[in-house]
Amino acid sequence: MIRFRKSSTQLRRRFFACFPKDRSSFILYYAMIWMTSSIVGPYLGAYYVDLGFTVFEIGILSSVGAIVCLLIQPLWGIASDRSGHPMIVLRTVFVLIGGFVLLFLLGREYWHFILISIIYTACNSAVMPLSDSYTLRYLNANGSSFSHIRLAGTIGYAFSIFFLSRILGNQQLKVIFLIGAVMNILCMIVTWILPKAATEPGDYRRLGRQKGGIREVLDRELVLVLFFVLIMQVSLGFHSTFLSVYVKNLGYKNSMIGVLQCISALSEVPVLLLIDYIIRKYNMFCLLSTAGGIMVLRMLMDSLAGTVGIGMLVASQLLQGFTYMVFSYCTIVYISKKMPQDKQSTGQSLLQGIQGGLGSILATAGGGLLGNLLGIQRAYLVAGGMILFSTVVFVIGMRDKLRLHAKRKDDYL
């Protein structure tokens, strides 16, 4: 019995050595915030369809929120960096979202939903960049990897959306707003167990601000990356915004939306397990250009789904990990390495402003217009052509970087 207790104690120590308290808290936090993101966003288009809105009207609603994201997002990053208390800013955001998401239940007319989208998106768009900047600041200071923590978000997203799809079925979608409000408050509570970053942004006032900022690092390389981010987001944004509308138009139930979203989330798991090794072997510019090529294939599959059947959408969702996750992970890490320490939140907010702001405006408003004129099926082909063009430009502009291989573990740039 004594030997058994000793061996049991050793096993527990080894287990907690692999998952120390600080990393475990980030794992729980990312699982929670991505579970929360799976509740409202994926079903919002289907909710608007049930209300009788057209594809163009849905596109306008989404683009209004994207415009707000473009204008407000940098302000959240600046506020977080200059406050010296990024966690207080993040907790405030969660409380505001938890209240504002309930306003969707009060919407009656189309213009009501425009106002609600403005208010809701102004806060909701701040969660991911503020979370990523805080987490990466802590992980970089402690020499830890971001991929496994981000993996927790993927698993949480897949679990949540699969479970929610089983609940919804053909039920009314109003329940998503109630669940979303509760989950945002829970996310705020979880932030209290996160460890404090080694150096808070406000500490740079006492230590002396580092020279440089966005203007100083805005070189040709960064501009080309941001251009590729913009065009890639247009395709990804169009795909995600109108997927639920497309599925409903093809005659499938709400549960099919959840199944497709779950498949896409699970496809990210093997990518996150291997992405650090692949980046060290090839570098992130190779991965970004490859993701662009695969995204062209996804757009073609999406278009063929209207003719061949739902199986093409399933195949497209299986490629989510090789497109969205590679694209998202590489750009987040790139900005973290590129930006000065006292501009981390500002840099991530700039990235989110281009992705969730300008890119989403073009994806939703332009996509809604194309969807009305050509139909969603043909609009996917137009989006595929755009990403093909941008990938060619990116490869030509980064040809020198694409020949290089990372030589050190931390050589992401």
CATH-level-2 architecture: Up-down Bundle
Per CATH, the class reads: Mainly Alpha
Total helical elements: 20
Question: How big a fraction of the residues is strand?
Answer: under 5%
> What number of domains?
1
The radius of gyration is 21 Å
Order of helices and strands: HHHHHHHHHHHHHHHHHHHH
Helix-strand category? mainly alpha
Helix content: over 70%
Structure description:
With 413 residues, this protein is mainly alpha-helical. The protein has a single domain (24-193, 213-403), classed as Growth Hormone, Chain: A (Up-down Bundle). Helix content is 81%, strand content 0%. The protein has 20 helices and no strands. The chain has helices spanning 2-18, 21-37, 41-50, 55-83, 86-100, 110-124, 127-142, 147-168, 175-190, 203-207, 214-217, 220-249, 254-266, 268-282, 284-308, 310-318, 320-338, 344-374, 376-397, 399-403. Helix 4 (55-83) runs parallel beside helix 6, helix 8 (147-168) runs antiparallel to helix 13 (254-266) and helix 12 packs across helix 18 (344-374). The longest helix has 31 residues, at 344-374. It is globular and about 50 Å long. The N and C termini lie far apart (54 Å). The model is unreliable at 1-9, 11-19, 199-212 and 406-412 (pLDDT under 50).
